[in-house]
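Think of the structure tokens as a kind of shorthand, similar to the way a musician reads notation: each symbol stands for something richer, in this case the local conformation of the backbone. In the example below we present two proteins back to back. Begin with the first one, reading the sequence and then the tokens, and try to describe in your own words what changes along the chain.
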Amino acid sequence: MPKVAIILADGFEEVEAVAPIDALRRAGVEVIIAGLSKEPVASARNVRIVPDVSVDELNPQELDMIILPGGAGGVEKLKQDKRVEDLVKAVESKGKYISAICAAPTALAKFGLLEGKRATAYPTLKEDIKPALYVEDKVVEDDRVITSQGPGTALLFGIKLVEKLVGKEKAREVAQKMLVEWE
């Protein structure tokens, strides 16, 4: 079964973290919730999530995908953390998926991973994902980079991640059970 990690930092956007976790776990994917430390991580609206591990405990060799949720405060912390940058780059260099939603594609841009890619982000941040070509779709896939626009697209983003990891049929099944209009 595929294994993915989602990295949370204080100020993350709740829906953009929990919706993909939910969709992926419904599909049988192992989702590891990682924090910058093992301490509970407070979201933008002070919902606290206890991470399974700290980012230091993640092994990029074991991951099929990395997910960065949005939330401006959390994304700024992710962008400034060299461990996060190194981990994302290591997963990408192994030919695995990297994904980000809302403000988080700006982290991928900062890490130099959007060069020549089509991507999306929260609409007011389209300049901040350059050199990517901004696409105004809810979810954008370019090779092994998957990006999405924001809280309202989080379930579609999660279903797309399911599709990439376990196939279209499973994605369709999860979407149907969650009452998500997909495809």
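Once you have a description of the first chain, move to the second and do the same.
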Amino acid sequence: MPRLSLPARFAASLLMLAGFLTVVSPAEAAVPDRKGWALWNQTSGSVVPSGTWPVGSSVIPISPGRYQVKLVGQGAPQGVVHVTAINNTPHWCQAENWGQSGADEIINIRCYRAGGALDVSSFSVFFVRASGGPAPGPYGYVDSSATGALFSQYNSTGAGNTSTNLSVGQYEVKFPGLVAGGTLDGSLQATAVNPQQGARCKIRNWVSSGSGQDVNVLCFNAAGALLNTRFTLTYQYKVSLYGAAVPPKYYGYFLNQPPAGPPSTNLNSILGLGANTIISAGLGLSLVTFPRIAFTQNTVQVTAYGSNPNFCGLNTFWTNSTSGPDLIVRDVNCFTNAGAPVNTGFTVSANSIL
């Protein structure tokens, strides 16, 4: 299908993003300003309604491995995007760019198979833009350039986040003031942003302290070599991935180090800390269950965790069990850079509109 043309104002707004750093105040508005997500089924060539919000949002293939997402009525400048490949073979997806087109948010996505060739894949994509607050819990994000300069950011305390390029492909991101109380708390999602080549970003580690959250991010190219690239990073603690809580009432997150991280990195909004579970479903496969939060429309995002170029995604679509109701991620699948299944660390975040 031919690529859709965007309005001239959208193209211009993408160019302008590189020149501006947005520091937001917690006194301006509620969190978030805009949010949305889409679940794309490559087999059926359509979005999955239970994993897509707002209703009427769409995905259009541009060319093999490239997609354009429209989140209706959620257009806003800046913000962050996260995307997770859904494929039973080794694939990853990354953001190409995004921006406002009239009332809508337009996101361009690229998906790759192991080895670095663009390839078709199902995926889950998420967008949020926040400018107000305070959020009901510690929450923040950055959209970092390859050099560490920030295109945009949000911090629920109103403090200024920073991203520092320590060396090739290695970044230190600080969320000052986002204090959760322990030494490893909450959860993170990271996504590479690159319109020119295959790129992946992951969480190397992070430290929670009395001054905030200090996060080390690693980014790689398709060959598994460290790469300077633009990326997005979101931190959440006892709030949803879009910064709000009650509503939504149903959300959760989980750190697999492996094994599972401390209870403070395992939150279920209904049952509290430590309630979500993980079991091995085979080499490189982890079944994660979020009890009692399976209410649509919902979204799931996954990010690899650790110091190597391993990457993670979803083996297939999550299920919304009616017996719990439990949200079942079957499974998180993880791979070496060469595409071999491997047991490795990851973070997973599940979020509902309710």
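Compare your description with these statements about the second chain. Residues 35 and 120 are 25 Å apart (CA to CA).
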